[in-house]
Amino acid sequence: MKKFLYKIDYVLQRFFTSLVFTFPIINWIKRLYFYLRFKTFEIEVTNNVVITNFDKPNTNASVKFNGPCTFSRNIEVDYSGGITFGKKVTVSDNVTIQTHKHEYDNMSIFDNVTSSSPLVIGDEVWICNNVVITSSVNTIGNGAIIGSGSIVTKDVEPNSIVAGVPAKHIKYRNLNDA
Fold it and tell me: Transmembrane residues, as ranges (predicted)?
C-alpha cells in the first residue's frame, strides 16, 4: 500500500509542478500541496520538481527542511535514505540527488536489493545546473558550491567549491566581504 502512495505522490508532484501552476493565480494551489506534503511554506519549487522516495518504503525515508529552499526546473530528489536541507539552499536546473543505490555484488542484479544512506545539505549551499549527487555522499557542508555538470561522489567540505566528473575540490570561498 505504501508503494502505491509513493507513486500517487510522484504523479501529484509532477502535476503540481507543471507549467499550468506557474500562473500567479493558481500557484497557491501548488504551494498548498507542498505545504501539506512537507509541512513548510519555506520551499519554492518551479517546474517538474519531484521530492520523493524512489526506493522501497523503509524507516530511513524522510525529508526535513530547516529553512527556505529554492528548487528550479527538472529536479529529482530521492530521500530513501533520509535527507536534511539547511537554510537558504538553492538547487538549480536538471539536478538529481540520490540517497539509495542498487547492490550487485554476490547476487543477481534481478534480486533488486538496495541500500540507502542519509544526506545532510548545509546552510547556504548552491547546487548548480546538471549536477548529480550520488548515494555515497553523506554531507555537503555549509556555504558549499557545486559547479555545473558535476557528479558528486564524496562529502563536500564547508565553504568549498567543487566541480568536475567526479567532483573535486577547486578552492574555498572567500567570505571576507560577506
Answer: 12-29
Strands (E), 48-167: 49-52, 63-65, 69-71, 75-78, 83-85, 89-91, 96-97, 100-102, 114-116, 119-121, 126-127, 132-133, 139-140, 145-146, 151-152, 160-163
Task: Name the helix (H) or strand (E) containing 172.
Answer: strand 168-172
168 pLDDT exceeds 90?
yes
Q: Take residue 158 and report the three cell numbers written for it.
A: 564547508
pTM: 0.89
What are the catalytic residues? 102
Record the cell numbers describing residue 39, joined without a space: 509541512
SS3 at position 163: strand
> Is there a contact between 106 and 125 (Cβ–Cβ < 8 Å)?
no
Gap between the Cα atoms of 40 and 52, Å rounded: 15
Q: Which three cell numbers stand for residue 171?
A: 578552492
The pLDDT, as a whole number, for residue 131 is: 98
